[in-house]
């Protein structure tokens, strides 16, 4: 009976119920995992020690990524038989590589070289074996279709950029988690619209895991950080969603986002990408130091500096990024080059507004 039931079952006939179940399952697994992770971290003293750069005064567990990873793997394993098994297995493989690298870095120390090597391996698995890559610049700067190896190389660069840009924003309570939650929710909409239930399931499972994580990340008594374990796997998934969205749009000239996907993807990830570009510019050209040398020049540090607390900083940054996304959706009638130019202009201006208001209030 069960064999017949499973053979005849098609989740695409009940997509919304299916996605709700995936969301609830991911949330439940993460929710149940975090208390145990907190207990073990405290008992084994696996805590983040505040230093000169830290915005926290107390020792805090940094293993939140374990709960996120467990919930994603369980959901993908359970639903894999009904969806695109090849894609799910490769995503799970990439997540597993980055999970162990992040765990190693959280527990001891991992060299930047090994982290980059792991990111390249995990990203290359998906690019090559699923052939999910950026195949065109969509006439940006008058460049259209990319040669195969250029396409692979550029897509790999985008993966590494997004993973590390996301890692760099994990500096105040809730920022990385809430940002990823909002962006993943929008990707659920994109993938459902494209009838890709496999990617929609992964994206909504990530939403469920992040909500469970944020409950503790915002807590004053049982706080837990995402750590490199979490930021690597979440950044990897955001990169995978971004590349998949662009690839879907560019591969179908009937797609609603055929000409606009690069600008919309940029808008979704505007904050981490702009923040990384800004920090690297300051480090290289102003401080004359290594772009990888840690400092307190991130946008979230500036918000804290003008008197915002962690919650207000997180809500301000994520809300601003959401407004940037909404404006981008309303500019899709324009030529792509103009969309990107305007995105850079209004996106940068919107993040300056709180600082302008702060200066006016001090006068």
Q: Report Rg.
A: 20 Å
Provide the residue-averaged pLDDT.
88
Kindly estimate the percentage of residues that lie in beta strands according to DSSP: under 5%
User: Would you list the SSEs in sequence order as H and E?
Assistant: HHEEHHHEEHHHHHHHHH
Which class of secondary structure composition applies to the elements?
A: mainly alpha
Explain this structure to me?
It is a multi-pass membrane protein. Pfam families: Glycos_transf_4. One of its GO terms (molecular function) is transferase activity. It is found in: Cell membrane. Helices cover 71% and strands 3% of the residues. The protein has a two-stranded antiparallel sheet with strand order 1-2. A hairpin with a 2-residue loop joins β3 and β4. α4 runs antiparallel to α5, α7 runs parallel beside α13 and α10 runs parallel beside α14. The longest helix is centred in the first third of the chain and has 29 residues. The radius of gyration is 20 Å and the shape is globular.
Task: Draw up the topology in text.
Blueprint: H1 2-8, H2 15-43, E1 47-48, E2 60-61, H3 64-79, H4 85-107, H5 112-130, E3 136-140, E4 143-145, H6 148-168, H7 175-193, H8 197-217, H9 227-251, H10 261-268, H11 270-286, H12 299-305, H13 310-329, H14 336-362
Antiparallel strand pairs: 1-2, 3-4
Question: Notable features of this structure?
Answer:
single chain, 363 residues, mainly alpha, two-stranded antiparallel sheet, 14 helices, 71% helix, globular
């Amino acid at each position: 009976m069960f064999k017949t039931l499973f053979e005849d079952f098609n989740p695409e006939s009940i997509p919304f119920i299916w996605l709700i179940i995936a969301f609830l399952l991911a949330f439940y697994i993460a929710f149940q995992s975090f208390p145990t992770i907190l207990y073990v971290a405290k008992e084994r003293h696996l805590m983040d020690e505040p230093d000169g750069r830290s915005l926290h005064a107390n020792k805090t567990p940094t293993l939140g990524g374990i709960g996120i990873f467990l919930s994603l793997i369980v959901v993908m394993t359970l639903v894999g038989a009904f969806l695109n098994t090849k894609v799910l297995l490769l995503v799970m493989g990439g997540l597993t590589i980055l999970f162990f690298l992040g765990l190693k870095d959280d527990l001891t120390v991992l060299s930047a070289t090994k982290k980059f090597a792991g990111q390249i391996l995990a990203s290359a698995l998906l690019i090559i074996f699923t052939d999910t890559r950026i195949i065109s610049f969509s006439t940006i700067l008058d460049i259209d279709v990319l040669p195969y190896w250029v396409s692979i190389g550029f897509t790999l660069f985008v993966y590494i950029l997004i993973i590390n840009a996301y890692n760099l924003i994990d500096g105040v309570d809730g920022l990385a988690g809430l940002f990823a939650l909002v962006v993943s929710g929008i990707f659920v909409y994109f993938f459902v619209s494209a009838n890709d239930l496999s990617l929609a399931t992964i994206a909504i499972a990530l939403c469920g895991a992040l909500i469970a994580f944020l409950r503790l990340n915002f807590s004053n008594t049982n706080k837990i950080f995402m750590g490199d374990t979490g930021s690597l796997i979440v950044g990897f998934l955001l990169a995978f969603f971004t590349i998949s969205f662009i690839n879907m749009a560019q591969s179908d000239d009937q797609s609603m986002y055929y000409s606009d996907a690069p600008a919309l993807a940029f808008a979704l990830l505007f904050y981490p990408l702009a923040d990384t570009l800004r920090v690297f510019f300051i480090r290289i050209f102003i401080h004359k130091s290594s772009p990888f040398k840690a400092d307190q020049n991130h946008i979230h540090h500036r918000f804290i500096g003008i008197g915002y607390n962690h919650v207000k900083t997180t809500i301000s940054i994520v809300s601003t990024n959401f407004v940037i996304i909404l404006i981008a959706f309303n500019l899709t009638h324009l030529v792509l080059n103009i969309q990107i130019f305007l995105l850079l202009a209004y996106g940068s201006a919107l993040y300056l507004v709180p600082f302008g208001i702060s200066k006016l209030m001090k006068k």
